[in-house]
């Protein structure tokens, strides 16, 4: 599923000043060589983003077990981390595939030997689709599926593929959307027309239906959950129609599920899983949850079904920010050396975890405003503040190399790995 030799080769890369916050004494050393010195967190510069090794594995194990018990497959969204080292953890724990969002991300995954990929998007880029046609022909073991939500998309794909080398058809999932949603055919009638056009094309195979329910709600209110359930029921109804019409090319997938409503996907769609084809076309239900491996202390810690208030085996935040106090310009205010270039802020600001009654009220490019009750003893110059973060998708893209520590709660955690990202 992934080439471990290529992933392992990342540990031979040489460290340098281009790797943010890595200590100067590590420059010129290979990663494996540096880790052999048993570095600790205090040796790194601030600002810093870290991952917790034990929490990462806990989250991977929790989700893998939950999916297996629910009778669904996992194709975690790799765009969350764009980290082949972490993709390998997920695949080795039973993930069926890796999901990605752009053809460039697919190409990156292929360079690491990922051999089953779902592109949760339409592919009408001529350069990318031409590359894909060649890749599919040259690598018969490579399994790939992308989405289509309109007749114009199908026409564009056919036109590009007619001029590309390669004869192997591209597998297509018809995407159903919803009112005020993101992409996706807005009605079942439109989706049915797209499916028929795909099935009629010699360059395309119809292999499933799906979409993204997270665009239809951003909370767990009754109305929000009802909107998600109604949408998922429509996805199921579309699958039944296409199966009855005999449009599938041989097997089918039903795919949905981000990291906020995967419980509802199981509730409404898991019963469609029928890999033996006893009730129609052999069908797999595939979840694309991506954020679960990291989780967070913000958005997902509130909305996910897999938190302590909703689950006996909950996910836990595996990422933290670390920032140093560099200014105390007035009582009750400290400026930290981490800002928008270092930490996520689109789904909530960082939250201080090592100072009582403190709050981050704003971020500039390279500073965080930390406010707290007037106390001269709090947050002295040079002290380091641990920060809880919200939304891993916009945390990882700010770091090309992320230290993995053995225990975020230890006094001076040991750094046990350095994870490369590709953004």
UniProtKB/TrEMBL annotation:
<protein>
    <submittedName>
        <fullName>Amino acid deaminase</fullName>
    </submittedName>
</protein>
<comment type="similarity">
    <text>Belongs to the DSD1 family.</text>
</comment>
<dbReference type="InterPro" id="IPR042208">
    <property type="entry name" value="D-ser_dehydrat-like_sf"/>
</dbReference>
<dbReference type="Pfam" id="PF01168">
    <property type="entry name" value="Ala_racemase_N"/>
</dbReference>
<keyword id="KW-0456">Lyase</keyword>
<dbReference type="InterPro" id="IPR029066">
    <property type="entry name" value="PLP-binding_barrel"/>
</dbReference>
<dbReference type="GO" id="GO:0016829">
    <property type="term" value="F:lyase activity"/>
</dbReference>
<dbReference type="InterPro" id="IPR001608">
    <property type="entry name" value="Ala_racemase_N"/>
</dbReference>
<feature type="domain" description="D-serine dehydratase-like">
    <location>
        <begin position="318"/>
        <end position="406"/>
    </location>
</feature>
<dbReference type="InterPro" id="IPR051466">
    <property type="entry name" value="D-amino_acid_metab_enzyme"/>
</dbReference>
<dbReference type="Pfam" id="PF14031">
    <property type="entry name" value="D-ser_dehydrat"/>
</dbReference>
<dbReference type="InterPro" id="IPR026956">
    <property type="entry name" value="D-ser_dehydrat-like_dom"/>
</dbReference>
């Amino acid at each position: 599923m992934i080439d471990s030799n290529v992933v392992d080769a990342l540990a031979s890369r040489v460290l340098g000043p281009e790797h943010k916050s890595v200590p100067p004494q590590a420059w010129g050393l290979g990663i494996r060589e540096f880790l052999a010195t048993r570095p600790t967190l205090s040796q790194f510069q601030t600002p810093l983003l870290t991952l917790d090794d034990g929490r990462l594995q806990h989250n991977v194990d929790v989700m893998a077990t939950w999916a297996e018990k629910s009778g669904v497959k996992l194709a975690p969204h790799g765009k969350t981390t764009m980290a082949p080292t972490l993709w390998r953890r997920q695949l080795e724990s039973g993930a069926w595939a890796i999901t990605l969002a752009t053809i460039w991300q697919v190409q990156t995954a292929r360079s690491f030997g990922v051999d089953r990929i779902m592109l949760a998007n339409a592919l009408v880029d001529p350069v990318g689709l031409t590359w894909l046609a060649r890749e599919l022909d040259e690598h018969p073991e490579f399994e790939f599926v992308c989405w289509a939500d309109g007749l114009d998309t199908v026409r564009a794909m056919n036109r590009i593929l007619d001029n590309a080398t390669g004869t192997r058809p591209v597998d297509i999932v018809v995407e159903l959307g919803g009112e005020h949603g993101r992409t996706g055919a807005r009605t079942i009638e439109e989706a049915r027309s797209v499916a028929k056009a795909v099935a009629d094309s010699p360059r395309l195979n119809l292999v499933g239906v799906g979409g993204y329910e997270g665009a239809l709600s951003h909370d767990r209110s009754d109305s929000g959950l009802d909107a998600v359930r109604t949408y998922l029921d429509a996805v199921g109804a579309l699958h039944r129609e296409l199966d009855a019409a005999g449009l599938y090319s041989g097997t089918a997938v039903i795919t949905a599920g981000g990291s906020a409503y995967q419980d509802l996907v199981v509730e409404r769609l898991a019963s469609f899983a029928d890999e033996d084809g006893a009730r129609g076309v052999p069908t797999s239900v595939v979840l694309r949850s991506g954020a679960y491996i990291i989780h967070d202390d913000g958005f997902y810690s509130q909305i996910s079904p897999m938190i302590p208030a909703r689950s006996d085996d909950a996910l836990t935040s595996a990422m933290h920010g670390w920032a140093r106090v560099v200014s105390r310009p007035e009582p009750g205010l400290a400026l930290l050396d981490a800002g928008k270039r270092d930490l996520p802020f689109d789904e909530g600001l960082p939250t201080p975890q090592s100072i009582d009654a403190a709050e981050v009220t704003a971020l500039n490019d390279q500073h965080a405003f930390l406010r707290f009750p007037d106390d001269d003893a709090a947050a002295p110059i040079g002290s380091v503040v641990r920060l809880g973060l919200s939304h891993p998708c916009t945390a990882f893209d700010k770091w090309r190399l992320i230290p993995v520590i053995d225990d975020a709660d230890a006094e001076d955690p040991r750094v046990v790995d350095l994870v490369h990202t590709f953004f």
